TrEMBL record:
Regions crossing the membrane: none
Protein name: Barstar family protein
Domain of life, source organism: Bacteria
Family to which the UniProt record says this protein belongs: Belongs to the barstar family.
Gene3D superfamilies from the UniProt entry: Barstar-like (3.30.370.10)
Source organism phylogeny: Bacteria, Pseudomonadati, Bacteroidota, Flavobacteriia, Flavobacteriales
Residue ranges occupied by any Barstar (barnase inhibitor) domain in the UniProt entry: 1-85
Length: 106
């Protein structure tokens, strides 16, 4: 299975997201930077099996990218061999090392 990691440490808006996605995924030339186009390429243009994993998301990212997360969760339900997960960044407490926390919403 091909796993693509998208690190949200450097992502502040949708333009940043699509820039990083294009660096990591071979998208068709006709790809438009929008959620409908993303859904279309997942359901027809990308080679499967594919796992898309978002790391280092903040609570602010969850709000800003709510529609993106919903689109990918829908694609996961509809496209065979496509899976998607995302992880929130976790801040270190004094004396403790931080670990990523997996969030699964269904």
């Amino acid at each position: 299975m091909n796993t693509i990691y998208i690190d949200f440490t450097e992502i502040g808006d949708y333009e940043d997201f699509y820039t990083q996605l294009k660096e990591k995924v071979k998208l068709p030339e006709h790809f438009g930077d929008n959620l409908d186009a993303l859904s279309d390429v997942i359901s027809g243009d990308l080679e499967m099996p594919l796992h898309l994993e978002f790391v280092n998301m903040s609570v602010d990212h969850l709000e800003l990218f709510e529609d993106l997360l919903t689109t990918l969760e829908d694609a996961e339900d509809e496209v065979e061999d496509f899976t998607f997960t995302y992880y929130l960044e976790q801040y270190e407490d004094e004396g403790e090392e931080g670990e990523d926390e997996e969030i699964e919403e269904k």
